[in-house]
Amino acid sequence: MKLQGEIKTELFSNSDHQLVAQVKRVLQSSGYAPLAKVRVFAEEGKVCLEGEVPTYFMKQLAQTRVLPIEGVRRLTNELNVDRQYHHFT
């Protein structure tokens, strides 16, 4: 038998997984290969982007594409700009 708290945790977890999947789809559809490699985490609508991108433009683009997604309550953009980035690796 599950307690109510356990059920709530599972519901949040499921919606977080759906949000992560949606954010990843949006980044992959951007047409920029480095954005497809961004790591995405979510907890109760708080989304975090991590990884490396080659330009500040891509860092900003990731943010502007993710913010309008329904369910994103807060966004932390921890993408690092690495001018030595090699997208073929």
Total beta strands? 3
Low-confidence stretches: 1-12
Radius of gyration: 15 Å
Question: What would you call the structural class?
Answer: alpha+beta
At CATH level 3, the topology is Histidine-containing Protein, Chain: A
Largest sheet: 3 strands, mixed
Secondary structure: helix percent: 40-55%
Report the portion of residues in β strands.
Answer: 15-25%
Spell the H/E element sequence. Answer: HHEEHE
* Oligomerization status of the protein chains: single chain
CATH architectural type: 2-Layer Sandwich
Trace the largest sheet across and list its strands. 1-2-3
Number of domains: 1
CATH C-level class is Alpha Beta
Whole-number mean pLDDT: 86
Total helical segments: 3
Straight-line distance between termini? 48 Å
Gross morphology is elongated
